[in-house]
Amino acid sequence: MAGAKLFLAAAVGAAVLLLAAGCGGGGGGTTGAQTTTSTTTTTTTAATTTTASGPAPSKAEYVSQMKVIGQSLSTSLNTLGAAKTAATAATALAKVQTDLRSAADKLAAITPPDAIKTQHGQLVKAVRDFADELDPVIKSLRAGTMTALASVPTLKGLTEIQTASTAISNKGYKIGG
């Protein structure tokens, strides 16, 4: 049973690490000052849609911003990978969910280059969807069902994150680690 729990934790960790890699996590650390781009953010609470406006960052600035967001997910992902019980996995996955929502807000605040505007929007939506899809998994974990972790790699939002991240990379924006 302990081996199955470790396998499930590893599977979930790998699935969520895929997200971090898609947003630039897992790469080398950033050094020096970070470049920021002035943006105006508009939030529509009814649809939970956030859009950014303002000048788009250069390709290098965009990639750098994406990598910073991906790296910010690493800590909570490491905590999830270390979870050995359903209770600790529930706590860790709830933290991942919070961090995913924060990452989605940060992604939405970036004005993407025109060449990847659609794909970037798809990525923002996918990250939000994935975070929302974790609710029933967290609930099951809180009820003591460790096997609920097995469903995480199959969630639609995770597939959509990979699709959007790959599409961005295919256009020459290497946001993965």
Description:
The chain has 177 residues and is mainly alpha-helical. It has one domain. 60% of the residues lie in helices and 6% in strands. It has helices at 2-22, 59-72, 74-82, 86-108, 117-133, 135-142, 156-170, and strands at 40-44, 49-53. It has a two-stranded antiparallel ribbon with strand order 1-2. A hairpin with a 4-residue loop joins strand 1 and strand 2 (49-53). Helix 1 (2-22) runs parallel beside helix 7, helix 3 runs antiparallel to helix 4 and helix 5 packs antiparallel against helix 7 (156-170). The longest helix is centred in the middle third of the chain and has 23 residues, at 86-108. The protein starts with a helix and ends in a 7-residue tail after the last helix.
Q: What's this model, at a glance?
A:
With 177 residues, the chain is mostly helical. The chain has helices at residues 2-22, 59-72, 74-82, 86-108, 117-133, 135-142, 156-170, and strands spanning 40-44, 49-53.
Low-pLDDT stretches are 3-10, 26-51
The structural domain count equals 1
Fraction of residues in helix: 55-70%
Q: Could you describe the largest sheet, including whether it forms a barrel?
A: 2 strands, antiparallel
Order of helices and strands: HEEHHHHHH
Number of helices: 7
Mean pLDDT: 78
Dominant shape: elongated
Measured by DSSP, the beta-strand proportion falls in 5-15%
Structural class: mainly alpha
State the distance separating the first and last CA atoms: 33 Å
Using DSSP, what is the number of strands?
A: 2
- What order do the strands of the largest sheet run in, or round the barrel if closed? 1-2
What is the CA-atom radius of gyration, in angstroms? 16 Å
